[in-house]
């Protein structure tokens, strides 16, 4: 399988390329007043507003560094039974790697809440944590971005 790599504070994270719609350069986002922590803003994606999450905030509790290799990764995110676009501000998201899915194993430690970044694969450079898009956002953040429609 092919994975998009990103790095935050020296840790490497892999995102299944099948979940990626597009990788864009980092652009200025529209701010959202009173947005929950972790929301970087809204991207005008061909006339459609798409929420963008700061992966550095979600994974390392800090804002992403605005560098040449910081990108906006558009992913297919399923919430409330429907798939929608979600942008991720991702540092050092300029490389890919090929690994068998079986290379990723349970490290014996799991997060108590999202983001769920297990299993892990090891190589000469150290661990690579696989990002599970389905369990990427804490529930409160997912609900504020993609509220479940109430029945009438």
Helix/strand layout:
Blueprint: E1 2-8, E2 11-16, E3 20-25, E4 39-45, E5 48-54, H1 55-60, E6 71-79, E7 82-90, E8 95-98, E9 120-123, E10 126-130, H2 139-145
Parallel strand pairs: 2-10, 5-7
Antiparallel strand pairs: 1-2, 1-8, 3-6, 4-5, 6-7, 9-10
Strand count, sense and barrel status of the largest sheet are: 5 strands, mixed
Overall 3D geometry? Answer: globular
Mean pLDDT: 88
**How much of the sequence is in beta strands?**
35-45%
Instruction: Determine the structural class based on helices, strands and strand pairing.
Output: mainly beta
**Widest sheet: strand ordering:** 8-1-2-10-9
The helix fraction, in percent, is: under 10%
State the helix count.
2
What's the helix-strand series?
Answer: EEEEEHEEEEEH
Features:
mainly beta; 152 residues; five-stranded mixed β-sheet
Please describe what this structure looks like.
With 152 residues, the chain is mainly beta. Strand 4 and strand 5 (48-54) form a beta hairpin. It has a five-stranded mixed β-sheet. Strands 3-6-7-5-4 form a five-stranded mixed β-sheet. The radius of gyration is 15 Å and the shape is globular. The protein has helices at residues 55-60, 139-145, and strands spanning 2-8, 11-16, 20-25, 39-45, 48-54, 71-79, 82-90, 95-98, 120-123, 126-130. It is built from two helices and ten strands; from the N terminus they run βββββαβββββα.
């Amino acid at each position: 399988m092919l994975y998009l790599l990103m790095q935050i504070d020296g840790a490497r994270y892999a995102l299944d390329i099948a979940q990626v719609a597009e990788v864009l350069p980092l652009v200025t986002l529209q701010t959202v007043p009173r947005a929950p922590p972790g929301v970087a803003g809204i991207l005008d994606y061909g006339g459609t507003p798409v929420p963008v999450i700061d992966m550095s905030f979600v994974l390392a509790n800090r804002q992403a560094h605005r560098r040449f290799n910081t990108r906006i990764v558009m992913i297919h995110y399923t919430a409330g039974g429907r798939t929608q676009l979600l942008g991720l501000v991702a540092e050092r998201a300029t490389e890919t790697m090929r690994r068998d899915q079986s290379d990723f194993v349970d490290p014996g430690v799991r997060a108590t809440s999202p983001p769920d970044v297990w299993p892990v694969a090891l190589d000469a450079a150290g661990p690579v944590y696989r990002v599970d898009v389905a369990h990427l956002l804490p529930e409160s953040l997912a609900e504020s971005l993609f509220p479940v429609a109430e029945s009438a």
